[in-house]
Structure to design on (614 residues):
């Protein structure tokens, strides 16, 4: 496959353009997509870049189709992805469920917009519950919540590898702010950084003749006749997901050693949290910063450890949603006696002084 | 007396036989014709068979071909995804009238408009068989089903969907569109062969609706079943080629 980036270079671009480049350098063969704001420019850049590198694109009739065409393409052994947001993410829960049920290495980039319903086309962190646990199953998904364009780039590359290595559907969860703003990043070829892209392989359309009895036919399915058959599958997937979770979990922690209050946030809000913690520390207020990068699996052990070592009395969960990270966090650290305070700003941005003021009000 | 087994297509997957369709169901006839055509065209090793939810699901391990299965109505996009990713494969989507004309109608319509180079076979038995015989888009006027217990009233629920007719309107000349029936086996085979040949030659979208039987949910005996198929269904849904790149359509 033709090299997309021969030497590392600085770039200044939007998150959506970053996402298209990242998919290209990851070796993605095909994107299936349907227009929805704020992810459109991922398609716009992909459709311009893809032909130069012999990759392809199809604009499907809706998000349901975009998700299912990705399911078909990955089954045939090609690196395929999609991108969506909001109501599109709702529609894609059906194909995402198929990817969970059949362990398909589907990759989806989600640029969150406001909800419920059509909400806004701008920004939110309201697709956390949907992206982590949407669908009629157990949430066998790997969800990376990015906070910078560099991370969009890095985690899309990593996301393709995660998907193809573990064969659980993998999500890069961004938002409208990350999608649309411009900021600097370094673009590189994965090989240059010692990142080996995981080889893809077909699940159907395999080498070898069935007619000549060289191999058995593949019969893939996602439905079972008996309760016990499904039970076996779900228990096996659960055990596998739990077994790989420790190596998948990623998080960021700062200033927690002696913190009395730990600010828990994710995605772009964690940038405000980082600034707020620095400002509060400068004022002598003992506050720490904890950010799950993987929302699924959640770094619960690491957060429990941060609480234990600091002896923090309070967590402050700050998010651009009305309690989605809060509920996720609470269930993951069940049993901890720390009080949880909240700063919920559904569908609007959070800046450093929102967090500073909130921290000061709960001291 | 010695048992004489009927000839089975080479492309059938024998461990899943005898198949699990109800006695009198037409699916076995369609799948036999399809198997024979796959054999004749020698495409067993590059055929990807994909099936829907509904009775068509029971074909998920029917063929000794690589096969996949998806959600209700979503066979079309899965086949499109495979074909777009691996054009050298021959993709055959297999679905019922509910999957194709109701819950998956947007996929059928748009795959036809885009002239996707896949072959779709839609088995029309005028009801939702697997779920217990509800009204389908293809239920005939006056036909009783579980959700139209007094007979389908077109004033309330419209007239039966004529799939090949609308697909023919949406597709360019290099598409293949036909309606077959399990009562005319040779013709059914010819239409299926043409639909596969059209994909093999890379021409365009290929679609065959097959009129089929459902005595279990129709609550009919053998004679009544055949009567409903040949005298009621075939009257409402004309059998023949609606569009063929291989010459003039035939009745």
């Amino acid at each position: 496959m033709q090299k997309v980036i021969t030497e590392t270079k600085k770039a200044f671009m939007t998150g959506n353009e970053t996402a298209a480049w990242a998919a290209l350098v990851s070796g993605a063969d095909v994107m299936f997509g349907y227009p929805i704001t704020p992810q459109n420019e991922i398609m716009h850049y992909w459709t311009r870049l893809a032909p130069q590198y012999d990759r392809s694109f199809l604009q499907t009739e809706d998000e349901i189709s975009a998700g299912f065409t990705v399911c078909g393409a990955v089954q045939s052994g090609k690196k395929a992805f999609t991108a969506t947001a909001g109501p599109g993410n709702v529609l894609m829960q059906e194909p995402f469920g198929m990817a969970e049920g059949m362990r398909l290495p589907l990759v989806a980039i989600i640029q969150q917009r406001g909800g419920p319903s059509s909400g806004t086309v701008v920004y939110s962190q309201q697709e956390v519950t949907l992206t982590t646990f949407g669908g009629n199953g157990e949430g066998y998904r790997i969800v990376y919540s990015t906070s910078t364009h560099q991370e969009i780039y890095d985690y899309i590359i990593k996301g393709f590898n995660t998907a193809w290595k573990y064969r659980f559907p993998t999500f890069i969860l961004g938002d409208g702010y990350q999608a649309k703003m411009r900021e600097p990043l370094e673009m590189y070829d994965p090989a240059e950084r010692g990142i080996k892209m995981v080889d893809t392989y077909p699940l159907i359309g395999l080498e070898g003749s069935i007619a000549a009895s060289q191999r058995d036919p593949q019969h893939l399915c996602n439905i079972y006749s008996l309760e016990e058959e499904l039970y076996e599958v779900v228990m096996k997937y659960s055990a596998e997901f739990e077994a790989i979770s420790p190596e998948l979990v990623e998080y960021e922690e700062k200033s927690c050693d002696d913190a009395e209050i730990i600010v828990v946030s994710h995605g772009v809000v964690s940038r405000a949290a980082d600034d707020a913690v620095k400002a509060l520390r400068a004022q002598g207020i003992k506050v720490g910063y904890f950010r799950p990068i993987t929302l699924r699996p959640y770094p619960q052990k690491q957060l429990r450890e941060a609480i234990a070592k600091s002896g923090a009395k309070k967590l402050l969960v700050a998010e651009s949603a009305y309690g989605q990270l809060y509920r996720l966090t609470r269930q993951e650290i069940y049993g901890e006696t720390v009080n949880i305070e909240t700063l919920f700003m559904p569908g609007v941005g959070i800046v450093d002084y929102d967090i500073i003021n909130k921290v000061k009000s709960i001291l | 007396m010695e048992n004489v087994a009927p000839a089975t297509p080479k492309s059938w997957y024998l461990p899943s036989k005898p198949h699990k369709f109800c006695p009198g169901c037409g699916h076995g006839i369609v799948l036999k014709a399809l198997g024979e055509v796959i054999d004749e065209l020698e495409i067993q090793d590059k055929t990807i068979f994909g099936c829907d939810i509904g009775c068509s699901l029971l074909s998920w391990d029917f063929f000794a071909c690589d096969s996949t299965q998806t959600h209700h109505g979503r066979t079309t996009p899965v086949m499109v995804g495979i074909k777009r990713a691996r054009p050298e494969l021959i993709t055959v989507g297999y679905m019922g009238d509910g999957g194709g004309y109701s819950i998956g109608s947007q996929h059928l319509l748009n795959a036809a408009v885009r002239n996707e180079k896949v072959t779709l076979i839609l088995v029309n038995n005028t009801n939702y068989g697997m779920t217990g015989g509800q009204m389908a888009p293809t239920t005939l006027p006056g036909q009783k089903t579980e959700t139209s217990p007094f007979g389908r009233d077109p004033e309330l629920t419209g007239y039966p969907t004529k799939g090949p007719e609308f697909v023919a309107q949406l597709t360019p000349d290099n598409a293949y569109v036909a309606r077959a029936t399990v009562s005319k086996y040779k013709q059914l085979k010819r239409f299926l062969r043409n639909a596969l040949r059209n994909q093999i030659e890379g021409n365009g979208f290929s679609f065959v609706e097959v009129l089929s039987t459902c005595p279990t949910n129709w609550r009919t005996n053998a004679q009544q079943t055949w009567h409903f198929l040949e005298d009621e269904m075939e009257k409402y849904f004309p059998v023949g080629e609606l569009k063929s790149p291989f010459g003039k359509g035939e009745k």
User: Anything to note?
Assistant: Chain B is about 35% helix and 15% strand. The two ends of chain B are 42 Å apart (CA to CA). Residues 22-243 of chain B form a domain with the Rossmann fold fold (CATH 3.40.50.970). Chain B has one domain: 22-243.
